[in-house]
Amino acid sequence: MSLRDLIWSDSPPGESEVMRPEGLLWDTDSVSVSSASGSVTKRVKWTAEESQNLVKGIKKYGVGMWALMKADKSLNLGSRTNVQLKDRWRNLVKNDPALNRI
Asked: SS3 sequence, 12-61?
């Protein structure tokens, strides 16, 4: 099943749902906050637990399988986007090259 098969596009604009391979739907978490002046994206710092769960996900699924890691509820990465997962992994490897050997 490709990533394209995982995206369900019948949702209203601005809202998306991802179809997991098992056929279950879950809403993506939003970090946008509406204000009088428009929509603002709130930055949330990475916790040590999230970083450890990302490394577990890399060991389980491999580098680049961000959508699968996000869909795995045991990793608790659902509030992060695929790009945030990729960027965090790149920064972890930059700071600790030994992680690149996983």
From this structure: CCCCCEEECCCCCEEECCCCEEEECCEEEECCCCCCHHHHHHHHHHHHHH
- The pLDDT > 90 percentage for the chain reads 49
Closest CA to 46 of 87, 93, 97, 98: 87
**H-run or E-run covering 95:** helix 82-95
pLDDT in tens, 9-68: 444 444 444 444 444 333 333 454 555 666 677 889 999 999 999 999 999 999 999 999
Q: Looking at residue 91, what DSSP letter applies?
A: H
Write down the pLDDT at residue 38: 67
CA-nearest of 93, 69, 94 to 83 is 69
pTM of the model: 0.61
Q: Rounded to whole angstroms, how far apart are CA atoms 93 and 51?
A: 12
Q: Decide if 6 contacts 21 (C-beta within 8 A).
A: yes
